[in-house]
From TrEMBL:
ABC transmembrane type-1 domain location: 89-278
Pfam families recorded: ABC_tran, BPD_transp_1, oligo_HPY, OppC_N
GO BP terms, alphabetized: peptide transport; transmembrane transport
Cited PROSITE patterns: ABC_TM1, ABC_TRANSPORTER_1, ABC_TRANSPORTER_2
Domain ABC transporter: start-end pairs: 319-570
Record's protein name: Peptide ABC transporter permease
Organism: Devosia elaeis
Membrane protein topology class: Peripheral membrane protein; Multi-pass membrane protein
Keyword list, A-Z: ATP-binding, Cell membrane, Membrane, Nucleotide-binding, Transmembrane, Transmembrane helix, Transport
Family as reported in the entry's similarity comment: Belongs to the binding-protein-dependent transport system permease family.
Length: 595
């Protein structure tokens, strides 16, 4: 289409860069600042005006902090603690980061190969990893260093080795889920070698997980290295790291506590800053966390309306939507998804909401009951009136109480909305019990009745079937039965037949049509198919780029569409036996529109 979509963010609202997102997380920013400061100071150790860290001065041993010439005092050999702290931090950082890099390299390689190859390779590699995991890791590290001999380099190898399983298992899990994806199949079909697929198709998808795992484990590895040095198995004199400083000072814990407290605080601050930074990096690299989708969603969409709509409407039909606008918080502002939506829907009436994919139909439908997930969803203007009462101004619990009771939803693919581990009858009964007080047996009997009313044959026995045991059409009937469970006044059906074949589609539409007529339901039917609208709806509202561009009686609009876009949507309904004529008829319409 030639027009730019309404959701295209303006330059001012462009998604913030990763660094800005990281900085917006205060804890991560604090972690970055502290860690950055420590790294810079440790790197500048050779040029800083500090004494030689190994220079002993027996007469001035165990001087307290703030002594002349020794800001943090001296240790049991009279060495300057500040200087040793800075040099020791440098060593701890170097060993911790190197161990993380080694563990990440070998662990990820094992995970990638095992997850991609599966079969015997997977079993052998993962059993080896399991063997490593069978021992308490710090004991294993001590045993390895004891076997190799004490020393920083051996401590580094030991820490890297005991952390390999952590990477291997994580990366294998992600690789297994990626290896069966269509783009990997496509690469295989294109003749790429396994190695090429592994490194060009799988690895780029696994890389963020490797980075996240590294950022969250590096602090842990620094701590483990310090542990080995504390026990005298890591840094050997005269080299010292934070752990060995702590170990050497423990004999003077009561006479000169500062000698052990200072390196202890340093280890704490260093590990804490890395962990805070690591958590922040994880949130930034994971797109789901970045948009806030994995945050606990709010029970009702965030509502930020500049002007409050009138609390009630006189002489209002079942549903009135007045000037509704909603969008998504992109971190720097709200990107609009639907704008100024208004329509009315009476009892027993069916309104079709039609538009191409992305035109904002679902956001409109979900906004009516504050169901757009927040974050990132936001309702920015307008009102929704049910029987004349503005519902978005209600208290949260009141609005939640309306869901499923006065207003019910039927979604596109019931396989994703039905719980796979519960029998369908049980799920309908649960929907009844959510709003009505009755015993479980009565709820189950009512569920069977509802199943019968939506045309499921042999309902009593089918009630104990699980969703995967039913056909697509039967599942959608269960979805409709659940929507009817509490005798709602309004049903919002969001593309209820899109996932079904044409014959089942026709039957489900007939069912919805019959139900709204028999029960006087107001039916809002969302679709992208004018054929469906023509079959069921009294009136239709055409949506494009988040706005309603035309609405009116279905017959009038079918006969005399005003908007070009409506004309094109109507032209897209093929006629039986039309064959190639359909394309010849439709193509010029889209060429004219530059689409
Ligand atoms: N969680 C989200 N975050 C950001 N933008 C979103 C989100 N969900 C939807 N949108 C945007 O809102 C706009 C409207 O989407 P909506 O799902 O309402 O379209 P639709 O007309 O129902 O499409 P379809 O027929 O494919 O379901 C789209 O441009 C979409 O990209």
């Amino acid at each position: 289409m030639s027009e730019s979509p309404v959701t295209a963010p303006s330059p001012a609202r462009k998604r913030r860069g990763n660094m800005q997102l990281l900085m917006a997380n205060r804890l991560a920013a604090a972690g970055l600042f502290i860690f950055g400061f420590i790294v810079v100071v440790a790197l500048l150790a050779p040029v800083l005006p500090i004494p030689n860290p190994d220079l002993t001065d027996q007469p001035n041993r165990l001087l307290p902090p703030l002594s002349q010439g020794h800001l943090l005092g001296t240790d049991h050999l009279g060495r300057d603690i500040l200087s040793r702290l800075i040099w020791g931090t440098q060593v701890s950082l170097l060993v911790g980061i190197s161990a993380t890099a080694l563990a990440a390299l070998f662990g990820s390689l094992i995970g990638l190969v095992a997850g991609y190859a599966r079969g015997a390779t997977d079993s052998v590699l993962m059993r080896l990893v399991d063997m490593l995991m069978a021992f308490p890791y710090i004991l294993l590290a001590i045993a390895i260093v004891a076997a190799l001999g004490p020393g920083l380099l051996n401590a580094l190898y030991a820490i890297a080795l005991v952390n390999i399983p952590f990477f291997a298992r994580n990366i294998r899990g992600v690789t297994v889920s990626i290896r069966n994806r269509e783009f990997v199949d496509a690469a295989r079909l294109s003749g790429k070698s396994h190695a090429a697929i592994l490194f060009t198709e799988v690895l780029p998808n696994v890389l963020p997980v490797i980075v996240i795992t590294m950022s969250t484990t590096v602090g842990w590895m620094i701590l483990e290295t310090a542990g080995l040095s504390f026990l005298g198995l890591g840094a050997q004199p005269p080299t010292s790291d934070l752990g060995s400083m702590l170990g050497q000072a423990r004999a003077q814990l009561f006479t000169a506590p500062h000698a052990s407290i200072i390196p202890g605080i340093m280890i704490f601050v260093l590990v804490m800053s890395i962990n805070l930074l690591g958590d922040g990096i994880r949130d930034v690299l994971d797109p789901r966390l970045r948009s806030g989708a994995l945050d606990r969603p709010m029970a009702v969409t965030r509502i930020e309306r500049k002007t409050k709509p009138a609390p009630t409407l006189a002489d209002a039909p079942a549903l009135v939507v007045d000037g509704l606008s909603a969008g998504f918080d992109n971190g720097g502002g709200v990107t609009p998804a639907v704008r100024n939506i208004s329509f009315r829907l009476g009892k027993g009436e069916c309104l079709g909401l039609i538009g191409e994919s992305g035109s904002g139909k679902s956001v409109t439908a979900l906004s009516l009951m504050g169901l757009v997930a927040s974050p990132p969803g936001v309702i920015t203007a307008g009102g929704v009136y049910i029987e004349g009462q503005e519902v978005l101004s209600l208290r949260e619990q009141e609005l939640i109480g309306l869901r499923g009771a006065r207003v019910a939803y039927v979604f596109q693919d019931p396989l994703t909305t039905l719980h796979p581990l519960f029998a369908v009858g049980e799920q309908i009964a649960e929907a009844i019990l959510a709003h009505q007080k009755m015993g479980k047996t009565a709820a189950h009997a009512r569920a069977v009745e509802l199943m019968e009313s939506v045309g499921i044959r042999d309902a009593a026995s089918r009630a104990s079937a699980y969703p995967h045991e039913l056909s697509g059409g039967q599942r959608q009937r269960i979805g409709i039965a659940m929507a009817l469970a509490n005798e709602p006044d309004i049903i919002i059906a969001d593309e209820p037949t899109t996932a079904l074949d044409v014959t089942v589609q026709a039957r489900i539409l007939e069912l919805l049509d019959a139900l709204r007529r028999e029960r006087g339901l107001a039916l809002l039917l969302i679709t992208h198919d004018f054929g469906v609208v023509a079959q069921v709806c009294d009136r239709v509202a055409v949506m494009r780029h988040g706005e309603i561009v035309e609405q009116g009686d279905t017959q009038d609009i079918l006969r005399d569409p005003q908007h070009d876009y409506t004309k094109r949507l109507i032209a897209c309904v093929p006629e039986l036996g039309e064959g190639h004529g359909f394309l010849d008829r439709v193509r010029p319409l889209f060429k004219e529109a530059g689409a």
